[in-house]
Write a structure and sequence with these properties.
2 domains; three-stranded antiparallel β-sheet; 3 strands; elongated; alpha+beta
Length: 103
């Protein structure tokens, strides 16, 4: 995440983080899809053709929770595939049963 000003150069404004622990993550925050890993922040001056600009950057590492995807995506998709195979195990003359599976 970057915070910077395009309208004001370093002659007008300079951004600073407020101490070494300026970026903190609340322990009570939980995400269903991800867990939050390491994070750090830096402050930098970038040079463009229009001048020098102050920029604050915060970097976060997210780890994908595989359990969520197993329950929400992989398991239901696999179940649909297995149910579609049931028609191959039914007797060829059991037309009504095959039609009932397709509905």
């Amino acid at each position: 995440m970057c915070l910077k000003s395009y309208g004001y150069s370093t002659r007008d404004i300079i951004y600073h983080w407020h101490g070494p622990n300026a970026v903190t993550i609340d322990e009570n925050v939980h995400l269903a899809h991800f867990s939050i890993g390491d994070h750090y922040h830096i402050e930098r001056v970038i040079s463009l053709s229009t001048g020098n600009y102050s920029r604050l950057s915060a970097y976060f590492t997210f780890k994908r929770n595989i359990g969520f995807y197993l329950i929400q995506i992989y398991f239901p998709s696999s179940l649909i595939v297995v149910i579609s195979w049931v028609s191959f195990w039914l007797n060829r003359e059991a037309v009504q049963a095959r039609v009932a599976i397709g509905k």
